[in-house]
Amino acid sequence: MNSSLIMLEISVIGLGLVLMLADLFVPAERRRFIGYAAIVALGVLLITSLSGNGSCGQFGTAFGGMFINDGLSLLFKQLFIIAAILVLFMAAEFSDKLAAGSVAEYYSLTLFALAGMLFAASSNDFTMLFVSIELITITFYVLVSFQRSKIQSLEAGVKYLILGALSSAFMVFGIALIWGTTGELNFTKLAAVAPQFADSQMFLLGVLLVLVGLGFKIAAFPFQIWAPDVYQGAPTPTTAFLGIGSKAAGFVLLLRVLFTAVPSVTAHWANLLIVISAITILYGNLCAIPQRNLKRLLGYSSIAHAGYLLLGVAALSASGQSALMYYLAGYVFTVMAAFFVITLVMRHLPSEDISGLAGLHQRSPLLAATLTIAMVSLAGIPPLAGFFGKFLLLKALIDTAHLTHNHGYYCLAFTALIGVVISLYYYFGVIREIYWGKNPEDLSPIEISSPAKLSLAICLAGIFWIGLFPDTVLNITNLAATALGK
Amino acid sequence: MSILTYIAGWPLLAALALVVVPRNYRVIIRAIAVLATLISAVLAVKMFAQFVPGANGFQFEQQIPWVESLGISYHVGVDGLNVGLILMGAIVAFAAALCSWEIQTREKEFYILLLLMTGGILGAFASLDLFFFYFLHELALVPTFIMIGVWGRGEKKNYATFQITLYLSIGALIALIGLIALYLQSGANTFDIPKIIEHAKTNPLSLNAQNFIFPLLLFGFGILVSLWPFHSWAPLGYGVAPSPTAMLHAGVLKKFGLYGLIRIALPLLPQATQSWAHVIAWLCVGNILYVGWVAMRQKDLNLLIGNSSVAHMGFIFLGIASLNLIGVTGAVLIMVAHGFLAALTFALSGYIYKQTGTLQISELGGLCRKLPFIGTALLMAAMAGCGLPGFANFVGEATVFFGSWKAFPTVTVIALWGALVIGGIYMTRAIRNILHGPLPEKWNSLVDASNVWRKLPYALLIVSLLVFGFIPKLLTEKINPDAQKIVALATGNLVSATAPGASPLNFVAQNK
Amino acid sequence: MEAINNLISGGVVQDIMFYVFAALTLLCAILVVANPFSRSPVTSAMFLVLTIISMSGLFLLLHAFFLAAVQILVYAGAVMVLFLFVIMLLDLKEEQRRKIKFFGLAAGLVSVSIVAGIFIKSLASIKLTAEPALEGETYVLGKLLFTQYTLPFEIISILLLVAMVGVILLSKKKLE
Amino acid sequence: MKYENLPWLILFLPLLSVAVITLFTLRSKTVSSLISIGAVVTGFVMTLLFINANGFQFSGETSANWLSIGGLQIDFGLKLDALSMMMLLVVTGVGGAIHIYSFGYMHDDESMARFFAFLSLFTFSMLGIVLANNFLMMFIFWELVGVSSYLLIGFWFEKPSAGDAAKKAFVTNRLGDFGFLFGILMVWGLLGSLSFSALQTTLAANPALLGASATLAGLLIFCGAMGKSAQFPLHVWLPDAMEGPTPVSALIHAATMVAAGVYMLCRTLFLFNSESLHLISYIGGFTALLAALMAVQQNDIKRIIAYSTLSQLGYMVMTVGLNGPTPAMFHLTTHAFFKALLFLSAGSVIVGMHHEQDIWQMGNLRKKMPITFLTFTIGTLALCGVPPFSGFYSKDAILTQALAQKSYLLFGVGVFVAALTTFYTFRLFFIVFFGKEKSKAASHAHESPLVMTLPLIALAVFSFAGGFIGITNNYGSQFVNHHEALSMAQQFTEPFNNLFPMACGLGAVAVGLFLAYSLYNNAAADPLPTKLGGLATLMKNKFYFDEFYEATFIRAHDFLAAVADWLDRWILEGAIIGAIRGGTDLSGRALRLAQTGNLQTYAFLFVLGVALLLYFVLGK
Amino acid sequence: MHVSLHHYLFVSFMLFSLGLLGVIMRRNLLVIYMSLELMLNAANLALVSFSRFNNKLDGQVLVFFIITVAAAEVAVGLALIVALFRKRQSAHVEDLTSMKL
Which segment of A47-61, A427-441, B178-192, D180-194 scores lowest on mean pLDDT? Predict the structure, then answer.
């Protein structure tokens, strides 16, 4: 048993515990620095993982095959850490809106959620899947309702709680059925026996129910219904983490389940995935059109993006999976940038109505430009991250269409295209509000702290880097995709 | 480094430089923009002059791998098909930068976007890689939307911005799907256009694939080029666009789709091209005749020239559809000529709008008296627009007519009617109502373009039109050999594809 | 212990006990969800306790003795007390009987019955393998938990920590 | 061929002058006009030099490749033979005179420099038509001539009528050009070449090459001539074109441009088969008659001359159609002299009358403007065909040709039109120069300056002597295989070789003159309307052609435009795009109704989703 | 008929469906929550019966985890509901509609 593989996770959990303790000793007015300390620590972890020295860089399995470190987990772990760093930055800016005195708890809960995600990335077993997902979800129940003074925050928490528990129930039941029919919980072992059960209704039912649970995480149709409300109500840093971390965790598990555990079943579900992906894209984009609340808008947009990401799943090919991960990498920076700007601009506003952006280009050109770039990247326009990601997804999709002669894929490609066009409408609506919104109420310049500037710079650099120099990331995602097939 | 990289790179570099220039240094901002485009234009002229007609392969090539796993590389180069387009693009960009004095709010952002657009366009035309070809086009397209949205004019600004954004994005995305499908179907596993073409010579795409991809490219690019009936964005968009944007878009960027059809669809999808040719030809009638009629009816100058520009696209499509050397050469000629022309007309209408605050034809009149220079230029533009010899457009249109005569005589006659009669009617009507007649009292205070800088863009464009109008050989001798190759690929493949296994393209081999 | 063991391993008795417990479980569950006599959450909670207890009976029948105990201790004991405590704390009124929307009711019933129907339909695909053989020995279970399942077990501990912190955070009286 | 480069110079000098004037000397009226005059006069001198060196009886080409795309080879080439030499002389000669005259006529106009730039542009284009050695070159200059005419007619653009007239001229010409280019494409498609000489050789070798399309191709080519030479039914623009300055009318709408159609027909005569020629001759004859009738009831001095031009052009076209290129070109040349003379004299009158053009405001001008009177008289006599003025000879040649071709109907038309011509010309003559002054302006009229009268005199000399100075000789064997040069005496008595046509012509003149004298000598108002009634109204209103076209061609296009615009605006933009937009928006609004905010609904939708998922995957 | 896996699973399924019904039919948050507990219990039952009939103990381990997680979930959930009730004085789902559309 090679427990050194989980050093990263242990460090993160340890960090979370330390932060919680530190809260006792650090005076209230300096608690912001707890966050910065955590960021630095995470940064160190990230750098070690990037340089290949971290535990996540050592490939192998541990705990009887439950825990696996491979290219896929490495990529996702790096994404999770980056997301967490940015969320911590954001939380530091947002701290005065959180229940005072509990900032440190916010940080450490974020780190526990991160730990859950890291475990999720390495899960190779349904037990791990269940436990890590529950760790993420339960942490998020708290994080979502963290702003107790705000009724929306609590309401969002309750909605997330009930629907999350519902989806957990389905998932647990699904796991029970899978295990019951096959007797295996380990993905790798399951893959070996799964073909025998390809006709077993109960086995398929189990897999479907697990997919329900994961579909809820990634907010795919028809389990997307919670997303707008929770996105809107949650504190902005939580929303960001929910939109990226939780979604990415859902995707990494989805990939593992579909392509490592039950590839033989997945192969028959092309049409199902096509339909789900198509409807998800359309639903998210269409509903976003009349939306005026920016966070809610991003909630709908995140549904749409779940749909785009599902294209990579639906493609049922390594290039599709690679494209999915590539897209996700770009999505991390883009969404973080968007939410960071929302945090900075709207933390003092009663609601996140788009009209609050009016005059932003005068108040802070940097924030205006960042949000614009984020929107443009989400819309999938070169040279930003979103474009190359969509390009890869479409390419993978058409490739599969070409190979399988399944015309559904072409329809899906066109649906995605329609979705992109619709999304332009509302993304540009946001940009329009920034640059020529009418009657800005407040024109005072927005002060941006240097850590905030740093994190904005990280986001922008990420967006451009992934858009302009795809080679590095693409190699990583290709590697990660090959890990899945093994 | 290839000169092409410099041509496209300078504006992009200048755009970056502008980011750090404080916004109140207006003169410097303007100077940087003008200078950058001027350098591009001068380099483009140099490149055009150094271009060796009929040389084998591409010239001024440069290739840098970008994403090796996908076979994407930064690959630029010119042959006869794009050398003129790049020259035209660079000159129009310079003129547009000069015309941008009419922008008086947020100049910095405007110039950044303008330079971005310029770099994107020039890069797209120079690009020999499918991905960059598309990528750089998109890069140029987005600033267009923003510029129209922010600096546009008139009540319908928002509507028009969204219309043009959504329309063109749909077009671009359809084309993208087509291009990706092409990449995959070609089996060459590279985005490099010359390599794909080379590969397709021995492994032609299957008929099914061709028939699937061609409509995607045709309608995707067609939307970008305002092919009837997907044209309604164009007049609307140009009607509200600030004139430098309209100049660059209508003049240069719009040609991308046509260039794409010629560069990519014709050589790679020969059978599909042949079976779709008559469809294209008849859609042209929509552009030429129908949109010509619509233009006759317009009461706003920009809408009129917008529609007329749409109508002109019909001739280019007709040239392409004729699928012979003359037609394709003519199409490329018009692409270059119309670039200058569209830029000129939109620059002029921009001037008039700046002076009068309106483009309603009924409110104007007799402007030739107060604006002799602008009036004369507009007159020349109108004349060039209705295909007057002496201007480059005539050469192109006449060539297209000769080319299409054998392929589509009926359509050619309709096109003739559109070019000579309908074009003549609406252009002279516009002249009559804008420049001729008595001058209304209220326009007594108008000022003509007085100094050299103000006159330069118009003069430059007119001179370009005249030079290529008088000496079309400058272009045709460059276009010819490469158009010949394209046409050979588009038509010569027929034998090999219907009889699989037969060696394709003896035609080209013989020609060498 | 021996006696009980003999009793429940005896075929017919075991079957009868199964039916009794199953009926009890389902009946109580129905009363949790749709009690025709009371809409009070307290009633639901009480019936839930009964459900859980009768379920632990089923666990016993399945030779999962440890779990049966845990079920009663944790669920019927801790969790349900928590529920009741909260109900009392909040002093909840009865859920008002509103006009039942027939469409909503029908749609809900239909979708649940589709789910249930497919569940039950899938029963057919279960192949009866060997006779039930597993003896739920607590020792083996514990060993498994601390060897193979250490990692999830440890993660669960973090989860509990999170839950604790969360509960404290959410129910701190003062918002400072 | 000697001085091979000279024709190039002749052609491009005016273009150079355009460039110089527009770029540099737009501010200076005098310099600009001198440059322009210099260009055309130098051109004239060079033409003389060239002819002197080469004589008339030669044929040569000089060309450079202009455009070469596969099967499309277009040269920029000059064709030099008797036909083009003669036209070159006319264009530079008559043109030169008119240029000089304009210097005086336009002297007070502040845009004189622009005027001369346009004039030079026109000269360049016209020379291009004359010298072109292939169809496309000719078409190019054809168009350029059209546009310079457009510019010159609309020279006084602030006058709405001038703007309208320019537009009308342009569009009408464009209609003709449509046919012309159509025809060119057809010929190119069938014969594979555009060069006149190549075409002629090909066709001579294999006359059947044009096949069934021969007639159609011929008629389409003729369409070009129909537009430029204002033949029925495209004749409507010419009278309106009189809105331009008078020298323009003289140069373009009398002497040169309108003759281009006839010239083109002569140049490409080899293409026409007998059917098309037949039709052409009838169109010519009909135009001659129609225009003459219209002229009878016009009151604007320039319009009368314009209709007369139309009528004479009809003669020429008719003659070409009767396979008589030589008489046609003969008449073209003499007509250039005397019609330019008439226009310029009329211009002199107009200047003298302070830009009054209504003949019923004039009267008794012979006293006030003696030189003008004299030149006008010469012009009138030449036009009417009074011997020995030039018109007599050329008209006689036409009538003879008609008779020789046994086309008695056209011969009759010719004679009748001759009578009409005399009638309306002398009507004008009597009203303007005789009788009483009918307005104050007429009593204060004055003679024009020397710079204007000198060209008048020069033209008058040629109008008088044009008939026997060897014009027909110069065409030599251009159109016939054998041609003997005639001495001047022979030329002088040429009409007497065929007495019947001459007698008919002279009789017609006599009748016309008599009628005009009896009706209009000393008349204060026009007696004709009362005598002719409805016919006079018809004539006065030009047989309602304008109205007819307005109601058909223009309306039809406007209607189609309205339909297209409507479709664009309401169907394409409104209905289809609107529906797509609205549909998208609406579906967005509808879909999000699911987001009620009610947790129960959410749970229900969630379960419904599960149910659907399970049903579709496993429920079968 | 001899009681077999099918019987247990049937009970489990019915229990699950009843829980589901409760979640979508009841309006009181606490009752909804109880219904969710029913669903989790249904899963437990299924796992235990599979464990018995498959002769594998992993199912029971899983049940152990599920019970723990459920307890944690209940704790957090109830705290949340209490917090909300303090704000809203209601535990009814219809009152939680400040965010919609």
Answer: A47-61
Chain A residue with the nearest C-alpha to that of C171? A148
Tell me the pLDDT tens digit for each residue of D391-417: 888 888 888 888 888 888 888 888 888
Q: Would the pLDDT of D567 be above 60?
A: yes
Is C152 within the bounds of a domain? no
Share of chain B above pLDDT 90, in %: 30
CB contact under 8 A, D614 and C111: no
The pLDDT confidence band at residue A139, using thresholds 50, 70 and 90, is: very high
Instruction: Look at residue E100 and tell me if it is in a domain.
Output: no
Q: Are strands A60-62 and A67-69 parallel, antiparallel or unpaired?
A: antiparallel
Contact D617 A163 (CB under 8 A): no
If one counts the domains in chain E, the total is 1
Question: Which range is least confidently modeled, A464-468, B254-258, C106-110, D544-548?
Answer: D544-548
Q: Coil, strand or helix: which one is A353?
A: strand
One-letter amino acid identity for C168? I
- pLDDT of C108 > 60? The answer is yes
In a mutational test of the E interface, the residue from C90, C138, C153 whose CB has the highest number of chain E CBs within 10 Å is: C90
Whether C81 maps to a domain, the answer reads yes
User: E21 CA to chain C: closest CA distance, Å?
Assistant: 6
Reduced to 3 states (helix: H, G, I; strand: E, B; else coil), residue A68 is strand
Whether E and B touch, i.e. at least 3 CB pairs below 8 A, reads as no
Domain containing C3 equals 1-93
pLDDT score at C96: 62
For B157, residues 6+ apart whose C-beta sits below 8 A from its C-beta are B148, B149, B240
Q: What angle do CA D337, D338, D340 make, to 5 degrees?
A: 70
- H helix intervals, A54-102: 71-94
| Domain assignment of residue C157, yes or no | no
| E43 part of a folded domain | yes
Inter-chain residue contact A471 with B150, CB threshold 8 Å: no
Beta bridge partners of B65: B73
* A369 and A435 Cβ atoms separated by less than 8 Å: no
E68 interaction partners in chain C (CB closer than 8 Å): 74, 156, 159-160
Instruction: Note the pLDDT of residue A328.
Output: 94
Please state the rounded mean pLDDT for residues D115-126: 89
Task: Answer whether D375's CB lies under 8 Å from D456's CB.
Answer: yes
Give the best residue of E23, E25, E39 to mutate against chain D (max D CB count within 10 A).
E23
Query: What pLDDT was estimated at residue C176?
Result: 46
Cβ distance of A402 and B173 shorter than 8 Å: no
Output the pLDDT for position A172: 95
**E41-83: pLDDT as tens digits:** 999 999 998 888 888 888 889 999 999 999 999 999 999 988 8
**C-alpha to C-alpha distance for A447 and A441, rounded to whole angstroms:** 17
Residue A273 — φ and ψ, nearest 5°?
-65, -40
Q: How many domains does chain C have?
A: 1
- Looking up residue C44, the CATH number of its domain turns out to be 1.20.120.1200
> Residue E64's domain is classified under what CATH number?
1.10.287.3510
Is residue C119 in a domain? no
Sequence ranges of the domains in chain A: 269-486
Is residue C7 over pLDDT 80? no
Residue of E nearest to C96 (CA): E27
Query: Within an 8 Å CB–CB cutoff, is residue C11 touching chain D?
Result: no
**How does pLDDT run across D306-336, given as a tens digit for each residue?**
888 888 888 888 988 888 888 888 888 888 8
E83 touches chain D (CB under 8 A): no
Is A291 in contact with D592 (Cβ distance < 8 A)?
yes
Alpha-carbon span D389 to D383, nearest angstrom: 8
Give one DSSP letter per residue of D107-162, joined into a string: TT-TTHHHHHHHHHHHHHHHHHHHHB-BHHHHHHHHHHHHHHHHHHHTTSTTSHHH
Best mutation target, C162, C165, C171, to test chain A (most A CBs within 10 A): C162
